[in-house]
Design goal:
homodimer, 308 residues, alpha/beta, Rossmann fold, Dihydrodipicolinate Reductase, domain 2, 2 domains, 9-stranded mixed β-sheet, 6-stranded parallel β-sheet, 31% helix, oxidoreductase (chains A, B), Gfo/Idh/MocA_oxidrdct_glycsds (chains A, B), NAD(P)-bd_dom_sf (chains A, B), Gfo/Idh/MocA-like_OxRdtase_N (chains A, B), EC 1.1.1.48 (chains A, B)
Chain lengths: 308, 308
């Protein structure tokens, strides 16, 4: 089978740490081009912008966009207009309206569009989904608490308008719970704590209810020192489930049931290859929609200034 | 033909001023019940909550929800679960996630769900859409400026978290532009001015671009004294269009082309009857999605306190 000829747009940390190894390990893909203003890669054709790649004689079937979200819509639209399949890093856009436009554009052109949520491919997530599918959820607690100074040093954009603040990591939690919970859920109220010298929240508490009335409480914190937590606990009528380490470990009633090596990005590329083969798309905006709902509905309180 | 037996839920100002006359004038509907905590209507069965109506022997085919947005999802879900068609006043919910749930629920049960945007039925809107469909848009200016003290006296909820502030009227403008413009458009940046003693914006400036690159500028103001403006101006390659008075008047190159009596709510009920007859739904969330995008992406600045 001829491999899918892939161009990677954006060669930052996530591209080097995750995308390049996953592509190299998957024989269904052949990396044929890098698009990056400044960076390049030995042995791979390099272009400083997507327009130059599309005008060149390098043949490309698909494009993976690893740039920040702000320019992503224009790049994705350009790639789809040129007949290329598109993978979007998370979040799939700066606004929901532009993601909906990409979804419609890809559908109209029968191209594959994949809005990726890498945390959904964490080891514990699929067994958690299967286990919960047969049970009734009573209550959910999401604790997503990390030290922004450790994990996002110098990332000033995260604090700007549209930068999402603590929702930048917490959208991973939302991508997991929207996958594993058997019923949809809706925000009832929220509180966003925004540092007086910043635009985006540094902490948040969100109260959702699922369609069966079960409470879902999310506590998000960017100022967590000491032990970090990326944990989701689900009480059901048939036992207690816990996902820890961002979904890498699954516990049932205190027993560790699943853990394994990180296969998140290989999982994304496996899905991308299958979607292309099937002529299908996967554009689930539910995690970003919950974030937008939180910004729309929540109360804002002023937090102390954040100085890195 | 047997009329559609309709229950009206919520008997506030919008129900009395708009829904009751529109229902009375449309022979395809028969008002069979009022659901309201406090208010009732001579000659129509009255229930204090929807559960009581659904448990009664009053036969109902469809429900129109005129309550505030916060409880609307629970009511709509209950009505759909009981096999009733549902009309939602604008905005269709407090969050996008709950509207998506209603859309899926209605589709799964083959029931009609109508998310209404009454301004889309203003006299000038449909001719504006037809005129713009044949032209290329160069620039759009939205000026939605009204005096909150005149139009929303005592409506404290409008200032609370989720109350939308100046977007409560401005979502009408967004419902019109999402209908009349030939291309989709996306928010690039925004500024929300939030009074220091309130949660919701009192003024906003939003900069969008359409898929062809044309700039769309929206200026929203809740502090407009003197002449009020609910105007949309569209520059095209074939002349200038202007909608004024919230869409009631259409001007082309300065000439008044269309004006007419207010037919917005009769238009909504006409569409509701046709959707039910066709077994179809109309759940366009684009206006609310743009509002959520504005809350997600915009910079916030502190405005002077608002004291009514």
């Amino acid at each position: 089978m001829t491999p899918i000829r892939l161009a990677l747009v954006g060669l930052g940390k996530i591209a080097r740490d995750q995308h390049l190894p996953a592509i190299a390990a998957d024989p269904r893909f052949e990396l044929v081009a890098i698009v990056s203003r400044n960076a390049d890669l030995d042995g791979v054709a390099h272009f400083t912008d997507l327009t130059a790649l599309l005008a060149s004689d390098v043949m490309v079937d698909a494009v993976a966009l690893c740039t920040p979200p702000q320019p992503r819509h224009a790049l994705a639209h350009m790639a789809l207009a040129a007949g290329k399949h598109v993978m979007l890093e998370k979040p799939p856009g700066a606004t929901l309206s532009e993601v909906e436009d990409l979804r419609q554009t890809a559908a109209a052109r029968s191209l594959t569009l994949q809005a990726t949520w890498h945390s959904r491919f964490a080891t514990g997530v699929e067994p958690a989904r299967a286990w919960l599918a047969e049970r009734t959820v009573r209550a959910v607690r999401i604790n997503w608490k990390e030290d922004v100074r450790v994990w996002h040093p110098g990332q000033d954009w995260i604090w700007e308008a549209g930068g999402l603040g603590v929702f930048d990591p917490a959208i991973n939690a939302l991508s997991i719970v929207t996958r594993i919970l058997p019923l949809p859920f809706f925000l009832s109220r929220g509180v966003l704590h925004v540092p007086e010298n910043r635009q985006s929240p540094i902490q948040a508490e969100l109260d959702f209810r699922d369609a069966g009335g079960a409470p879902i409480r999310a506590e998000l914190d960017f100022l967590q020192t000491g032990p970090q937590s990326w944990d989701i606990e689900v009480d059901t009528d048939g036992g207690a489930l816990k996902l820890t380490n961002g979904g890498a470990k699954l516990w049932i009633d205190g027993q560790l049931m699943h853990e394994g090596p990180d296969r998140e990005y290989p999982g994304l590329y496996d899905e991308f290859a299958r979607l292309i083969a099937d002529g299908a798309s996967d554009v689930d905006v539910a995690p970003l929609r919950h974030v937008a709902d939180a910004f729309l509905l929540s109360e804002r309180v002023v937090a102390p200034p954040f100085i890195e």
